[in-house]
Each structure stands twice: as C-alpha cells, then as structure tokens.
Amino acid sequence: MTARPEGLHFPCSACGADLVFQPGQTSLVCPYCGHVQEIPGATAAERRRALAEIDYRAAIERRLPNALDTLQILACPNCGAKIEVEANLRATTCPFCATALIGEPALEQLFRAQAVVPFAIPEERALTLMTGWLGSLWFAPNGLRQYARKDKRLTGIYVPYWTFDAQTETQYRGLRGTVYVEYQTVTVMVDGRPQQQRQPVQKIRWTPVAGRVAREFDDVLIVASTSLPRREAENLEPWNLGALQPYAPEYLAGFFSEGYTVDLEDGHAMARQKMDAVIEGDIRRDIGGDAQQIQAVRTDARRETFKHILLPVWTAAYKYGGRSFTFVVNGQTGEVQGQRPYSAWKIAGAVIVALLLVALFMWLAEQQGMLR
Length: 372
Fold this sequence. Notes:
alpha+beta, 2 domains, transmembrane helix, transmembrane
C-alpha cells in the first residue's frame, strides 16, 4: 500500500501491529509476525438483511434514516474523491491522483455500504498484470515502460457502486419496414451507345405498428465515483456480484474506502439510461421486419430498488507531459484498464519510417520500369 488507509485498526493479538485483509482469503494477516485471524462468517439471516434491496422512492423521500451513516470525509481538491478517514486523521494521500489531503475531515451523511466484494487478486498478481498491459502498449513513452519495470506499488481501494432493480412495462408506436425490390428501366452506355436496361431497386414499405414490451432489470451497475474515469470503470466489467459479502470492516483493513460522489438520484438516472437502451432493443425485436422506426415510447417502472456496494480496484498513477494517467485493475477478475499517454517522438518516427518505405518502393518501381 502506498499509504495506510483510512484508519480501520485491527491489532494483532501476537505483536500488536495492524492486521490487514488477505486478498483471496477470509482472514486478516499480520505483515510483521504472520499471525492469522479468521473473519467471522455471516449467518444466512445476516446475508439476507445485508443483500436486501432498498426501496428507491422511500430513500429519496428521506424515509429511511436507518440506512444512513455519518462519516468522516476528506475530499480531494484535485480529482474530487471522498476518502473515508478516522476522526483524528488530518492528513493522507489521495489513492487516485496522489494529491496530499490535509485538513479537518467533514461530517457527511451517506448511505451505508450494505455489501462488499472482497479483494481476490493480491497486489503482486495485479502488478504483474498491469506491467504486462503497460509493456504491450504501442507508441508508449519510454518512461512508461521504465515505470512498468520498476518495483511500483499499487493502491487498493474499495470503490462505491449503486445497483438498481426495476420491473418495467413499455408501450410504443412505430413503423415496421419490409424490404422489397422494384425493377426500373434505365438508360446506360454500352460501347458508347445508349441502351435500355431493367435494374433492381431496393425499397422499404413502412407499416404502422404499436405494442407493449416488459422487462425485469436486476443489478444494473453504476459506478458512484467521479474520481475513477468512467470509461475505465465500465471497462472493468463484468463483476461477479454473486461474491458479495455482507459489509464487514475487516474486509477494508489495509485498504482505502471511497465515499460515493455520484448521489442516489444521479445514479438512478444513469441506470434508467442503461435500461432505456435495453428496452429499445426489445422494442425493435418486437416490431420485427427488416427495419424499424420508433416514434413514441412510454415506460412505467415499478418496484424500483437499489443497493449500495463496494467493489475492489487496484490503482496506480503515472505523470507524463504535465498530466496524470490512471491505471486500474479489477481486484476480483484481474481485468486491466487505463488512460495511456502517447509518445509524439515515437509517432513521428513511425510516420517518417513509413514515408521512407513508400519512397523506397516507388524508387524501386521506377528503376524496374527503366530497366524494361
């Protein structure tokens, strides 16, 4: 870890040092004396309570005070990350952009994380995967390849996510297109003379249609962090949410935990956009034919629920040309994503080499023509 995370302390009973969660295991381990302490498993009733869906309407109407926690938060002025810290911590480092965070933590009421997917990929394996990914990049600066070869450390962070469920029923109006062929007589030139020919012309016959489609959505996943680049976060999918465990602070020992910066209503709007895209596909299939036009849509959503969960991500940052580039590794599957810089010198060199090869080819072709 590049910095000790937000203050979850589990003293080792053997030597007194802080225990840390061991990825891929169900235990805490002392990094000094090797003592192992098992994390108590959740009962079936505890799992049901922790993984239960929360009514969305009741939540936005503030009728669920028991779902909220008051947290100590240090906000990053650079990337906007909200890092949960203990009450007496006044300084740490942002795990996303390495900005120093100094100041009095702010008290914020946030929805309590219900469940967590524990880290399954240890740091050494994640570093190997990231190094291989960095080394495979074309036109990457030499400094990036050197960065990949150095003994760099990654930062493990539990990133906040929302999951949304809904039962939807959609009424639509549109047009079904059926392709047919008509033959038209056209004048073409054949051997310098005009001739009449019949040629096929493809057309579409449109028929008005209306209908209804239904779809049940389960665990539509929305990253609730603005500090993690959205494209990279989405490309870390899929996640196996079957591995969710009821939230226990032991899973966070030795790792950072970020408070959400995408609020519930904004996350819900993003989820509805994802749902709408799926519903559009359902409508097109329901219309059928060779082509479809959707003219009007009305979707009713019922039984809208959500969960707030934490998912494991290894992160690293690299500075080049005055900019920071973030690399991320899915802490469950090992999928690697990142923002990559390009070397202008390498690109220019490749262009010059390509131009020289073209010039050489043209010169050789010209020489062969002269010999003939």
